[in-house]
Every structure is written in C-alpha cells, then in structure tokens.
Known about the structure:
Blueprint: H1 7-10, H2 14-35, H3 37-46, H4 67-73, E1 88-91, E2 101-104, H5 106-122, E3 130-133, H6 142-153, E4 156-158, H7 165-174, E5 179-182, H8 184-196, E6 208-212, H9 218-228, E7 231-238, E8 243-249, E9 256-258, E10 263-268, E11 282-288, E12 299-305, E13 307-308, E14 320-321, E15 326-327, E16 332-334, E17 337-339, H10 341-350, E18 357-364, E19 367-375, H11 385-403, E20 408-412, E21 427-429
Parallel strand pairs: 3-4, 3-5, 5-6, 6-7, 18-21, 19-20
Antiparallel strand pairs: 1-2, 7-8, 8-9, 9-14, 10-11, 11-12, 12-15, 13-14, 16-17, 18-19
Helix pairs in contact: 2-3, 5-6, 7-8, 8-9, 9-10, 10-11
The protein binds 5'-O-[hydroxy(phenylacetyl)phosphoryl]adenosine.
Amino acid sequence: xxxxxxxxxxxxxxxxxxxxxxxxxxxxxxxxxxxxxxxxxxxxxxxxxxxxxxxxxxxxxxxxxxxxxxxxxxxxxxxxxxxxxxxxxxxxxxxxxxxxxxxxxxxxxxxxxxxxxxxxxxxxxxxxxxxxxxxxxxxxxxxxxxxxxxxxxxxxxxxxxxxxxxxxxxxxxxxxxxxxxxxxxxxxxxxxxxxxxxxxxxxxxxxxxxxxxxxxxxxxxxxxxxxxxxxxxxxxxxxxxxxxxxxxxxxxxxxxxxxxxxxxxxxxxxxxxxxxxxxxxxxxxxxxxxxxxxxxxxxxxxxxxxxxxxxxxxxxxxxxxxxxxxxxxxxxxxxxxxxxxxxxxxxxxxxxxxxxxxxxxxxxxxxxxxxxxxxxxxxxxxxxxxxxxxxxxxxxxxxxxxxxxxxxxxxxxxxxxxxxxxxxxxxxxxxxx
Length: 433
Ligand code: DLL
C-alpha cells in the first residue's frame, strides 16, 4: 500500500493544485516586487508589474534568473526578507565560480524539510525506520535537508555525514539502518566496500536508498540495487530552491514528482528561452512560490530533462520530471557532438563495468580528443594484453554507437580511480586549462 506524508496535497486534483499555485504565485510576485529591488528592476525592464500576473499562465511574462544574476547579486541582493528574519544559510561547493549562498527563514526550512519527509515516506519510510544520512552535513544541503525530513517522519536518524566508509557499514549493520541517504556514487562505493569486507546484501537490513545530488543512469540504479539488496530511489534538488526534495521518486521508480505546491516547473529551449510543451526535452526552470527569504523566480537550473503528466501508479498527481540527463554546463562538445557523461556511463554499465570511470577531454592538432579510463572489475581483471585489447575495442564500438564519436578507451586496474564520498568528479577537460 502506498503511503503519503501529506496525502491531501500530494494527491490533490489538478484544479486544486492550480488554484493553490495561482494564489501563491500572485502573492509571491507581490512579495518579490516589494522586497527584492534586483528582481523588480528586471521586471520593470521587461515592462511587467504584479498586476500582470494573475495566474500560472502569466508565468512566462516574468524575467528569468540565472546563475549570473546570483553572482551579480551576491551575497544579499536577492534576499526577500530582513536579515534578522533569516535563521540559516546553505551553500554550494562553488566548483564553477562563486558560491551560491541561499538564505532561509524558519518557515522556509519547515517547508523544505516537509518536502524531504514526503520523499522518505514515498520510499516506504515510517517512524519505525532507521534512516542513515550519509550526505555531507554543513554548508551542503544534502545532510541537513534529509536529516530534517527524517525527523519529521519520526525515523531514528543516524547523522553519519559522508566519509569513514567502514564505520558507515558498521552503523548500518549494528543499528539496523533500513533507509540510506547519500549520493549514488557513494552508495556504489559503500556496496563495493561491503563486498571487500566479506559481507553480502543479506547481511544488512537496508531496504531503500534515497540517492541524488548528481546525475546517475538507470543502469547504475540496477547495479546499486543488486549490490546493496535494496530499492534505489532518485531525489533531486538544488541549493537555490532549498536543497533536496524539490522532486522525489515514488514506488513507480520512473521519474520524480515535483512538489508543485511549492515549485512551478517549466521546460525551456536553452538557446531561445522559449517555453516548450510537456514531453519535450529542455532546460528545467523553477519558480519557488512560497519560500520567502530566497525567492527564486523563473530560475534557470541548466539541468536537462523532460516533464510528464501521465497518471502515476502511486496515486500522486504532481508532475514528474525524468532523471536529469546532465547539466548544460556539464555537457561536453567534442568535435561538435554534444556528449553527456551519463551517456558514457550507460555504455560502460551495459558492458558489465561499474561506475568507476574518468572522462578526459583534450585537444591535439586542433582536434578534440576523448579518452575514457575505465576500471576493470575484480572478476575481469587480467594482464592478458589480447583480452584487454578486445575489451577496449568492444567499449570503443559501444561508445561509437551511443555518441557517434570515436573515443579512446583505456582499461585500468580495479580501485585505481579515486572514489567519491559526495558528488563524483568524472570529467577532466584539459581544453579549459
Ligand atoms: O545537490 C541538492 C541535493 C542534495 C539533491 C541531496 C539531492 C540529494 P546543489 O549542490 O546545489 O544541491 O546541486 C544542484 O545537482 O542543479 C543538478 O545539476 C544536480 N542534481 C541534484 N540532484 C540530482 C539528481 C544538491 N537526482 C545540482 N539527478 C542540480 C541529477 C542532480 N542531477
């Protein structure tokens, strides 16, 4: 039987959802106009005023916000309330430019944690569960968000944070953790370490995992499910919109329901900014309609995915987004061809490898080069050159048919690629150096 944290809203009819959205959007636009001069100026430049926004159909009249705006307005320029009403900040790791610093009122934290609670209940979590949160705690939103959600559900929460992998496994076993929250790459690493410690999936009581914060393929889901003996669910979010829980997977495991009572989603053409119909792939744009301290309006996420409104078997009515394929800024353009790391991952896992790989892009004689280093698994490890060459060639042709590009593949020894405890770094683009 499907459980819900807030059934009334999670399963509300379309009319009910739209009525909530219209009301909240009107109020939020007024709030931003009155309190965020930076965005008001953008609205004025576009010739829009709060009176022009009556319903969600008017959303497209509003200007976009992008990472560049966040940088320009750093740190307080997009704040929607006096600083004294804020109780927390969270921040991104800032690998691409300046950090994003997001602010929260107590109510903003409450709604964020509610979103995470919905995600935990959707994977079967109740107050009888033990939820181990192995996302990083601190400035990163993963740990704090799921910790709060776990409290709301009433799970016994184990705040291990990331790292110290053997201790993670000890806690899972000794304290009978049933739900694990971490990045998918760390989940895979935990599985690998467990195996090395001589443990089988049956030796641990875990039943579900809530994995997100980075793109991961369907093949990687299958792999993790097998090594940990659990069901693996996706969760999505970003610091600008609070953190994890903007959307989450249900029992159908076929895309993530967006919490539409808090976030309006649109898909746009990343080149032209034009809004695209449901079912079309494009860049995801969000408007936060009730978060007050950091009210993001039409924020361009750069994540590429599709929205679907097909009826879901779980009974939830909120729109679903497909697994993000990657970010427009992660997308590599190699010899003119668009390549997402997730496509490479799909090919590797289809050929029996695990998600331990590195993509190295360079330029030689004015031509882009694509090198993929892939770890052999223990089972396939060999120093037989003939066999290695055969395997490499298989991958070269698999990648060729996926990407339409010739890549160089190098098989490397097991455990030679550094493992990640948080978001994995898969790409080294030497062209940028
Ligand atoms: O990664 C929030 C989060 C924490 C989500 C824990 C899920 C679990 P940021 O560090 O601001 O926030 O990074 C946000 O990560 O724009 C996506 O590109 C990527 N991302 C997040 N979740 C997923 C996912 C957190 N499930 C950026 N699949 C986003 C693919 C994801 N990419």
